[in-house]
Specification:
alpha+beta; 5-stranded antiparallel sheet; 5-stranded mixed sheet
Amino acid sequence: MYSVLITLLDVIAAAAAVYAIAVAVRHFAQRRIPQDMGLLAGVLVGVGLFNCVSNMLEWGGLTAALDDTEDFIQLLEPILFGNLFYAYFAFLSRKKIEDSEAKYRLLVENQTDLVVKTDAQGRFLFVSPSYCRMFGKREEELLGQSFQPLVHPDDLPATLAQMEQLKTPPHTCYVEQRAKTISGWRWLAWADKAMLNGDGGITAVVAVGRDIAQMKAAEQEKELLLHVLEIKNKELESIVYAASHDLRSPLVNIRGFGGELKKACGAMDGVIARQEDEALKKAMAPIQEDIRESLYFIDAGAAKMQTLIDGLLEISRIGTTVLNVQPLEMNRLLKHIISSMHYQIQLAEAQVTVEPLPSCLADVRLINQVFSNLLDNALKYRDPSRPLRITLSGAQQEHRCVYEIIDNGIGIAQEHHKKIFEVFYRLNPGRKDSGEGLGLSIVLRILDRLGGTIAVASEPDKGSTFTITLPAANSPAAQ
């Protein structure tokens, strides 16, 4: 009975070994099983079969000649089983490592970005296929060589200076340089990361690079366009200034001689009034009226032209005036502006409320003009059917100050929201108190110069809200 049990156990052990081998073969069908693992498995199967045959012969009483050999082999079975399982798990570990290496090698080899690894002296330890393709060199040519000869001589000092940052936390740096590729000198951007040993020393540097030639070309084109635009703006400002300045002289003559003509006509009216000839007086009356009307239009036209010239000169000066940018205490500034406009506010019977305002970073003279213009517009375009209410509020949002000037005036239709900031655009040209279309243009130009913005939200008969943003007094720009 004991022999039968041993035989069954041997059969089970042999079957288990065969099953384990079959699972391994099926699981790794695309890989060749290592020689040591196959040899151990074969020996173990042979031992199992030998034990089965031996036990069956002994159970049948046919022979006992194999007992000694069987006892010796049974002693080897645990060792063989242990070695087989060790080889099997070692095989699994090697497969995981090889699969991981294959995955990352596939990633690197198909990466369009450039990947390199250098030692602390800048000698290549690894170069990706994309790097080899860009520089037209084989991996064997590059390994062990320094990267420095490939860098443009003008960019090498800056590159080495940037790489000094690798010695301090976070042990990274960003470098833009020209490198001599197979296509000639090209701009490359590199993100470097230092690999450290236990003592904090640099053992290697891993860098990922990207071709930024197109980006550099776009930047150069942008700089060129900005330079051309700056020149054109200066030319335009010079033309506007010269034209406005040159128009002043003839305008002074027109207004001056118009005044003299008005005085002469007044004297002539006195002379005619003293005459006793009624027919003469009657004949001269329409002529005198025409002269007075003509002089009125001449004077009004000259005054309007003077206003336009002054406005153009002011716009042209905004781009060239020297700024005195400093933190501004806006509550005090608005108090001063409202005090200076007290007469207009009282005449309009308006109520002006100023809420606490944050301090911004700007030029006091220009900002005074911005808020004065906006308050003047609110007073000018009030709705006569209701009392005028004007509210000024403000808040700081991160590094920007946001100010709102809210009124309940006549409002502005949506289609005019952008046009009101254009030069000479007038919303209601038929109104007697309508300006020359320069006030909001000046405001926009000032805010552009100060790094601010302006926007309007308005509907007809519902009032307007002008929103201004400016750098905050405690912003990085102030520091």
